[in-house]
């Protein structure tokens, strides 16, 4: 089996890359360990920066997002018993879109299958070979049969727990990590959102977040212990804790899904080893407070797709085939934005959560910072411009 680009992982990174490459006449094969049903129903975050919205629209896969997504013009910050609105549109001229990650994944899978392009689910024994040569290979098993996929490049889009990053010799990778001493207990519930925009609440009992997926489905989160047992959280305990922290009128309703998400900041540098390019969660993780995970993944693959286009040359005009400059710059181009987004995600997390070791001094300082944000246009604008999304790399 041969292709131009082997893509490992069918999350937002792998699927969007496959779509962008196909649009430019570059062949690829996508290999995914889980089933289609699993990846389409995996509940994750749901905020798209305005540029991620543009990428999906320009790629021709934004129609359902534009019809069903919720355009948001700001967020609320709740602290010290009061609510303050940060108006993104007024501060930056930009908005964000609320649209679940699994909806993006569904749209991209539908596009790939409609184009009759190769996408293998439930593959196993995936291994990467010779990525330090010009002829890398991926071996995998599908339907009980062993395959070897020969290719020009490998895109490691296999998430934080994937195998691609682990194939890079450890002495060639620098890892940067911070693990937070708490997690988020997240639920998806069948209740209309109690606020028309997201509420980020910094409460004495811990952080809480009110988000949504539609006019009838809410997504809610509570700061909890990193080893929290969801079994200890019957519905009524969740609802009463949310009410206490969010300080809003919140109806109870059926809980459709619940899970605990650990909080971590992580970067692997560089994002490339020979002809293996890491993208999305395979290369970096952000804590979800800034809602950046999916957006970073989309920004990476946009850079990678453009670099591969410049390598293969424009389809119609037979351009500079073999140009490696943009591919050589890939890691540095991505990392300069990745680190800015890491900083913002760490900052939002530090600003809004209770840390066990916090002294009364730390808590006063947090409040002072929140007060500053809601009373200074410069500070509010800094939050807003990061939240709606820093410019994509050139
Ligand atoms: N072989 C094939 N596929 C694999 C393998 C493997 N060995 N290991 C993991 N995968 C698949 C996973 O099953 C998953 O579907 O790779 C995919 C990686 O997708 P994501 O984890 O969604 O990562 P990414 O596409 O980078 O998207 C980043 O996802 O984790 C969230 O919040 C994060 O929003 C962020 C986004
Ligand atoms: C979500 O809707 O799932 C969501 C929203 C904002 C965040 C994180 C998650 O910061």
Briefly summarize what is shown.
The chain is α+β, with helices and mostly antiparallel strands. The chain contains eleven helices and 20 strands.
Please characterize this protein's 3D structure:
- This protein is α+β, with helices and mostly antiparallel strands and 394 residues long.
- The chain has a domain at 5-73 and 98-177 and 264-354: FAD/NAD(P)-binding domain (3-Layer(bba) Sandwich), CATH 3.50.50.
- Helix content is 36%, strand content 28%.
- The protein contains eleven helices and 20 strands.
- The strands form four sheets. The protein has an eight-stranded mixed β-sheet with strand order 6-5-14-15-16-13-17-20.
- Helix 10 crosses helix 11.
- The longest helix has 28 residues, at 325-352.
- The two termini are 34 Å apart.
- The protein binds adenosine-5-diphosphoribose and P-hydroxybenzoic acid.
- Residues 45-47, 198, 209, 211, 219, 288-289, 291 line the site of P-hydroxybenzoic acid.
Distance between the termini: 34 Å
Q: Given the C-alpha coordinates, what overall shape results?
A: globular
Q: Share of helix among residues? A: 25-40%
* Estimated share of beta-strand residues: 25-35%
Query: Uncertain runs with pLDDT below 50, 5 residues or more?
Result: none
Query: How is the CATH topology of the domain at 5-73 and 98-177 and 264-354 named?
Result: FAD/NAD(P)-binding domain
Strand order of the largest sheet: 6-5-14-15-16-13-17-20
Main beta sheet:
8 strands, mixed
CATH H level, superfamily name of the domain at 5-73 and 98-177 and 264-354: FAD/NAD(P)-binding domain
Which structural category fits the helices and strands? alpha+beta
| Tally of separate helices | 11
């Amino acid at each position: 089996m041969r292709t131009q680009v082997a893509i490992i992982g069918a999350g937002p990174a792998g699927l969007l890359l496959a779509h962008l490459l196909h649009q430019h006449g570059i062949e690829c094969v996508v290999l995914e360990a889980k089933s289609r049903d699993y990846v389409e129903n995996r509940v994750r975050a749901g905020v798209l920066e305005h540029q991620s919205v543009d990428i999906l629209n320009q790629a021709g896969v934004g129609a359902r997002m534009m019809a069903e997504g919720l355009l948001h013009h700001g967020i609320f910050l709740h602290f010290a018993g009061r609510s303050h609105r940060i108006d993104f549109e007024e501060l930056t001229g930009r908005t964000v879109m609320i649209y679940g990650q699994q909806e993006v994944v569904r749209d991209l899978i539908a596009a790939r299958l409609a184009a009759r392009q190769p996408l293998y689910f439930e593959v196993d024994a995936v291994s990467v070979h010779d990525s330090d040569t010009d002829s890398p290979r991926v071996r995998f098993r599908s339907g009980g049969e062993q395959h070897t996929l020969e290719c020009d490049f490998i895109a490691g889009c296999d998430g934080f727990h994937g195998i691609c990053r682990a194939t890079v010799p450890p002495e060639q990778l620098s890892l940067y990590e911070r693990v937070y001493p708490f997690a988020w207990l997240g639920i998806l519930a069948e209740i209309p959102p109690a606020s028309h925009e997201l509420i980020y609440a910094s409460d004495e009992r811990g952080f809480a977040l009110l988000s949504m997926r539609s006019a009838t489905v809410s997504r809610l989160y509570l700061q909890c212990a990193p080893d929290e047992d969801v079994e200890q959280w019957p519905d009524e305990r969740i609802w009463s804790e949310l009410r206490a922290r969010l300080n809003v009128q919140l109806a109870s309703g059926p809980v459709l899904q619940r899970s605990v998400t650990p909080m971590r900041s992580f970067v692997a540098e560089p994002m490339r080893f020979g002809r293996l390019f890491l993208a999305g969660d395979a290369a970096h993780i952000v804590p979800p407070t800034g809602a950046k995970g999916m957006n970073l993944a989309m920004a990476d693959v946009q850079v990678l797709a453009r670099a591969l286009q410049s390598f293969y040359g424009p389809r119609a005009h037979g351009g500079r085939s073999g140009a490696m400059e943009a591919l050589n710059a890939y890691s540095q181009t991505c990392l300069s934005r990745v680190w800015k987004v890491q900083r913002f995600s760490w900052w939002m997390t530090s600003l809004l959560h209770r840390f066990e070791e916090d002294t009364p001094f730390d808590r006063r300082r947090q409040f002072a910072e929140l007060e500053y944000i809601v009373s200074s246009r410069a500070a509010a604008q800094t939050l807003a411009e990061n939240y709606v999304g820093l410019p994509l790399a050139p």
